[in-house]
Amino acid sequence: MGQAWGFRGFGGPEVQEFFARPDPVPGSGEVLIRVDVAGVNPLDHLLRAGLVPGLDGGRPFPRVLGMEAAGTVLALGEDVDGLEVGDAVFGFALTGGGTYAETTVLSAANTARVPEGLSPTVAATLPVAGTTAVDALDQLGLPAGATILVNGVGGGVGLAVAGLAAARGLNVLGTGSAAKRAQAEAVGVQFVDYTAQDVVAAVREPAPDGVDGIVDLVGGPSLRTVAALAREPRTVIAVGDQSVAELGGRFVERRLDRENLARAARLALEGVLAPVISAVHPLSDAPAALATVENGHAAGKVVIKVT
CATH for 2-125+275-305, among 1.10.3720.10, 3.60.140.10, 3.30.450.20, 3.90.180.10? Predict the structure, then answer.
C-alpha cells in the first residue's frame, strides 16, 4: 500500500484527504511509475471541483490529485513501445491516475525519458508549463525583436512563456500583481503591475503602437482588456479561455505527445527553457502546495517531492 492525496468527491478543499491505496495496475498503453516529483497546477483544483469532467478518467472516489510527474518506470502495460522498466521518465496522467502519490500510472504516449543531466524536479514541471510555453510561442511564430505581452506572467506557465520568449530574442512585457514582480523581472520581463496602474496605458508606454503578440493566462475581463493591445487580433493566444475566438484570437494548440515532451526536455537541458520553481513541498505538505496555487499566490512553479 502506498500513500496518496486526493479527494473523496467533487468540491472545495474540504473534500481533500490522504489515503492508502495499492499500486495501480497499468492498463493498455500505460506505464506504472514510482513518483519522484509531481507538478502542481491550477487544473488540479479545477478537476477536484468537477469543472473538467472530460479529464477525470471516470475512476471511482477517492481520486488522486495531479496531472504531471517525473519518476521511474516500475511496470509496463500492454502495447507500450519505446519505454522500459527502470527508465527515468516524465509525463501526463491523462487517464485519471493522479500524481500526488507514491506510485501512479502515466499514459505511455504522453510520457518521455528524462535526458541524462536533467533533474526530476525540473522534468516534472515540463508536461504542463514547459510544453504550453513551447506550443504557445510556436503558434505565434514571432521573429526575434518582436514584442510580446504575457498576461498573467507570474505563475508557472507565464514565467515559462516569458523566459522562453526572452531566449528567442523577443521583447517581453508581462502583467501581474506586485508580489510577482521580482520573479518576472529575473527572467527578462518588463513588468506591469495591474493592481497599481491602468494596464493598457502602461503597456502603451514602451509599445505605443501595440504589441506583436499576446499570450493570455488569465482569461475573462482581463483578456478582453489586453486584447485591444494586439496589432492583429489573431496574434492573441489564450491558454485557458476559449472565448478568445470571439475576439478574433486563437486558443493554444496543445501537443502532448512524447516527441514534444522530449523537445521541451532538450530545451530545458540546454537552459533555453528554464522553469522557475518557487516551492518544493514533501507529499505530507501537499495541501499547502495546492492551496498556494489555488489562491493565486504562487510566483512560479510549485512541485511536490514524493521520494
Answer: 3.90.180.10
Residues 6+ apart with CB under 8 A from 166: 172, 187, 188, 189
pLDDT at 56 over 90: no
Could you name the CATH architecture of 128-251?
3-Layer(aba) Sandwich (3.40)
The whole model's pTM is what? 0.93
* Residues 6+ positions from 221 with CB-CB distance below 8 Å: none
**Residues 133, 164: contact at Cβ < 8 Å?**
yes
For residues 221 and 224, give the distance between their C-alpha atoms in angstroms, rounded to a whole number: 5
Closest among 197, 196, 180, 187 to 148, alpha carbons compared: 187
C-alpha cell at 40: 502542481
